[in-house]
């Protein structure tokens, strides 16, 4: 086919010259990613972060394509070009099962975007499956096995999913650009230049070790400063409580929800199929929440309004072991009239910036191997004191969310509020 | 108040230190701008262009604030600081009446975003009106008069709306960033540095003349290459035809539309009030269109699907005087089975890159005045041969849109398609 | 050879994977370009513009390499890969004969950097010649013929020297980056993507027409705002007058110059050979000028100090036909004690932003051809109204330089200064 | 005075609106900084890094000016505006005593750029002293005391010199830009926004803690990847050996050096005064080295050529305690004919990324204090686990440099070379 180009702020032009890729992009299921924001609720604190999973998926494909082009040219002995299309397709489709506000939504409705990804790829009813089947009858299941890590080829697996993969490399750069933070910037071109296939995976030439370090630091910083931002987590807590209230109300108010949020009914009824799932996107959910503002139920109405019009909960951090104290303080919140089932929430976010492979752990990481001048491999943290110091640690915090009202001056509830505030110092529970 | 900051990829940090501004941003009507894309259908061709009128409005406010800070400090004799808040508020609210896909929507439903802007500001039912009224009882109407150009102070008017104003300066930079094109880049800081109030308006010191030239060239290029892009206009034509079909069907299918698109009913009924209008946004309309895909009406369903899943019409350019030939060719389109009422459309886009003030014309432009070393003013095009050559011209094209099918090979309709194609060369009608 | 990389702010990494290229870069004559600033005296007004002809030459090579890689892959039928190395080498060496402050120096000493480029390439005493001869005995002369435009292959010629060539594309981006102006930015990757070889030269696909327009506008703006900046031209006038004075003094003060500026002696004696020429660079000349500050000759000393310590002449623009008036005003300058031979100067700078091929003119331009959808070629300005309006015009100005003193208040020379100033308004001669 | 602007790629426009600042910039001693590269020999590996101490000094001034403007406006109670000019001048002049290739030059000739800075500011023979004295008779000594840290006001001191000061903030951004690396990028505007004066120094609001972390990481990375780059250190070793050889030869070859390097004579004679020192710059030294290539002494000639034409030594890293082994290997180098006095060298570079104040150490650091929500101060590493892990550590390496020849294949010296190479693995001594 004649090459097509997508203009992209991160990568310049994204070239598509394989009809399978082009048709996948034009499929109904993939176009749907245009309507799902990459960063969910983060736009409440970074107003520029409106970018979608569509452009991220294109970006991940583009990085995969760049890598493969180099592998085919320079490492033909060790990279099997039969895996090239598989890798590009897997990169393009790795997020195809993501839905609106996935993480929160999954908590409430027990959906699983990874299972849905598998289903979209392998179910016979999707346009995507039908396009993939043109390659070969078992191509859909091959793609699915790459995405769920069960495919035998570790080179392909690691390109798609490892501590330094096409997904992470694209989203760090993209989220950095759209949030307007500099933290996520790293030298993609340098990393791509030193990336190499090895017998059973991927490694990086020693000449690019610092670029890999820089990538890991960027990732650490993006987690700490963007992905774990207290305000967007506040919106997640509100959303979670809002959906919890709707679920609670549904049995009593079926008509209200049927007319104001028809596509959610299968979820309330717990009879969801793929078609139902594909009907949801950010715009659909927000449309429903806007209509819920007019509900008779004060809690549903108020939380919907808080979510739509960005009225945030406040929060403090706490340590493990302080849960009892939080329960005490919850009474102060109830004392001034809030139902703590819907007006408070705990939210924990932790990230492992890097770890070497530890087979004994529950989720062993694929370590980053550096190819040294003499041809031997060395694990990254053994060479880099900086990465050594980050390695294996979990960084993040536990936060408790509560109504802003608790911090406002108020004659009526002096005691409850006073007690509550006396336990918070510098946004920490004491 | 303690200063608040919004992080913005274009301006770094946008500072808010006036409670009126902060409360306006938090108002329901302003938060709604988060759900309206700045560039409407352009994301179909620039996938990164998902930015909203919310961040653009903040950006316009920020530029206004920067200008005013300088005017207050360096031109206290000629800039009346009583106008400072008025200017910042007007910058913030200049787009407050914009709705989803405004330009297309207005064509079909006879709404007017400028009148709605006035209404949101002056109507007593809005949060915005109530916040503005805290400044003084007539402050809302002052703001409204700046936005509709009837305010007597030409300095304020020109900052908000002229050939080089805070709105245009922000959107060029922002649209350039989010589309990933370089064309719209110009030296904002240089222009802000040479901008001065004069007795009856705004002028620019001769030291910044080249930066002003560069701004005008950027604007010209953004029109030619982004705003007038044939593909996003294709989406506008599809949207227009889709809404036309819905209006046509409504009297026969009231129930269908009432359950699938409740917030549009007042528009179909032509009984719209402000509250109705404020219920619409991009997500709401897209949600409706997604449900229309399941309509029994083939045309409504097909156009809704084309809009949602990005199946574009093709187009050619034509000259005035060729309308007769277009009508001829429309018969070929009908011959292969398309209803040309819904499957074709003309779309004309023209822009005047710059003009001096010409009182005899229907829309005289506020010319750009350059303050020379000796203190005299000179109109820009009299000093710049490049601007002289652009000045007064209208650049753009007329395009006719039609189904892609007309260009595909096909045994059945060889004659109609052959005749049609014989009149197109290099995407021009011949 | 194993690929080597040069890190470059403009292009990221510049890859060298041919030993001829790598050895050329390491040659004595090429390393010398590290000591010659790309923009000569422009750093007096853009303090960041310290970049050298070395990095520009690498950049031109890099663009050539990118183009050729694409030509070899996609246009193997029309691009003869035997020309690939020739093109890359010519790009790398196109400026090899440039010396310190070339344009001014050539005026005074009748050297010619184009002839010197030929000589460095074809003379048997240079490292460059010896490296090139390893390719084939006639390779040096082939390279020389590309650079002087006499080579028969128009594809190669146009890549190296035409209205849109690797030289211009690199220097616009590079000069823009290092001066910190945005004007020279254009979309290199877009242009490279649409550039194609044709039977007798180079053309550009219609899909990139706007990017080519943008490049021409960038070029126009860089000329107007950077290359023709009055302050750097002031430094050129001072340098010219300084060297003129030195030439005048040399016969009387041979010892002074021999001990303070040995490498200039062959130039004063007008017996220059290539070895002499290669000894000069910016640092050597500046070292000499610094020592001239201590000369007994007041004019030599003062001009050397003005050049080294950046004390600029002032200037006004004038029109052709006003030379008589300038001669009149020169008397005012003499009246207050300045020798106008050394304290004034005319400096004219004009640029042709674009022109189509006009065989009847003295320097016919290679026009830019656009390859249309139907395969026909169209000359750029016939398609672009904006380029049409710029086409064929010469933009620039004539300036007269004089001592700043003429503008300062002064009791003693009121009449002469008063008369002088009365003829200047807004920096123009009236 | 009317404001003047310097265009700068890092900060946009640098505004000067105080005549003392403007006159200092135009002084002979400050203009000299135009001829001294900020990064010395780093341009051998980063060809874009040609930027000068002139633009860096302007940049440091600009950051100081931005901070002070904010301090005067928002912290008038704690920032004494009498210190504003002092701070800006100190920022501008902090590097005024730097000479060509300072660090290497100082090793050989026992000069001290810090003492020279003091001297330029306080000696009565400089233009700078004379300009500063216009402020008040003791102003020069005040400026000098800020720069040597003896001034009593800790706010001023810390702005000019601490772990996060105007010098470091400018050079990280600037060196990053000109080398074309991304590592040095951090969010200057964010840091400036949270910087506050406190009773006895400077602190940073908790809202900017992550930006401060990011700055420290950037600094760490610039040290590891740019400042400590093995290739530029190779050039330093060559330079050091070259100057050592010249010093050794001088007593025997006074005429040669007097005619080819007159400005160095006072240094060889060890009778240096300020005027002598100010005559040197990069161009002067390079001019001399170019003439030394023609020396009769093979070592001087060869090293001069190596420095000018970038023929690097190779290196390996070693640990403390391996010096004996290095001496062993030196014999292999001598065995093949190199004088190891001039053809080898050790070069150690270590950096302390951050430390809290430790009064017991030899060079206690000014710790970075974070101002918490409740008004208390906390030392940075107590809040940030990442900084905690970097804190107090020294990062860098010891390197031994030797002729590239030792690694080349060679029949004649198989044994010596073989033995030598057997002790190097992955560029480490084993």
TrEMBL record, chains A, B, C, D:
* Matching Pfam families: HD, HD_assoc_2
**Domain HD/PDEase as annotated: residue spans:** 49-181
**Matches recorded under InterPro entries:** dGTPase-like, HD/PDEase_dom, HD_assoc_2, HD_domain
Coiled-coil features, chain-numbered ranges: none
The protein's matches in Gene3D superfamilies, at most eight in alphabetical order, are given as: Hypothetical protein af1432
Protein known as: HD superfamily phosphohydrolase
Tell me which species this is from: Streptococcus loxodontisalivarius
Lineage, broadest ranks: Bacteria, Bacillati, Bacillota, Bacilli, Lactobacillales
